[in-house]
Amino acid sequence: MKKASIIFCLTLLIAVTAKGQINPVKNLHWYHWYVTPKNCFTLSWAKPDSSLNDTLIGYNIYRDDSLYKFTTDFYHSCNPCDYGSPNDPFCDFLNYTGHFFIGEFYIHVTAVYNHNHIESIYTDSIYNQGIALGIKENIKTEQLAISRISQENASLMIELNKTVESGNITISNLSGQSTSEFKLMNQKNIAIDISKFSPGLYLLNLKTNNTNLSRKIMIK
Fold first, then answer.
1. Of 153, 194, 205, 214, which is the most buried if we count CB atoms within 10 A?
2. pTM to 2 decimal places
3. Would you kindly state where each structural domain of the chain is located, as residue ranges?
């Protein structure tokens, strides 16, 4: 009986080691922007390193631990912001209720090998809460609105539909504690340095004399 247990443990170790050696995908990238009232997003990754022992047949995209779909492509997009009505099946990617908030989930992608669909591990995981979801703008008579919010490296890019002569933008955590405040003077396009922000969900408030806009944002 003792000999059998040793053989079983050795077999399990070999199986786990073999799966770890299967090359995972690289450079998982999620880009999400918002143009009132549409959400647009892309998901992409780099092909895994070549392997002499395994044949790559495609990829599994996961939302948390739930399989979204198997695909042979490594780039997916939903872009009704620039091209009108969405017609890409990937536009249903945010319609997920696996967590308390609709659209809140972790994204990861595994490489699938050989005819028996052996999966790699995943080395990248992206948390998605969605940019500009769940909080509507309170637009006053001035009709000021946020046209676009996006994140480019260490900067949060905000585009307004009209120039603001004076005002301020406050970014706070969901407990209401102010994190940073930025003054606006004759600006329509704003770039905010977020290099010192921890990844997470924040509330952005834009205030002028007669307009108060609120927007929930995800900083990654």
1. 194
2. 0.53
3. 23-128, 146-219
> Which letter does DSSP use for residue 89 in this model?
G
Bridge-based pairing state of the strands 56-63 and 38-46: unpaired
Cα angle 137, 128, 144; round to 5: 15
CATH architecture for residues 23-128? Sandwich (2.60)
The first and second tokens of residue 156, run together, are 């949060």
Give the N- to C-terminal CA distance of the chain in Å, as an integer: 52
Handedness of CA 7, 111, 32, 86 (dihedral sign): negative
Whether 23-128 shares its CATH topology with 146-219 is answered: yes
Q: Which top CATH class is 146-219?
A: mainly beta
CA distances from residue 144 to 158, 160, 210 in whole angstroms, order as listed: 13, 7, 10
How do residues 2-19 score in pLDDT, each as one tens digit?
A: 444 443 343 333 333 344
pLDDT given for residue 137 in this prediction: 43
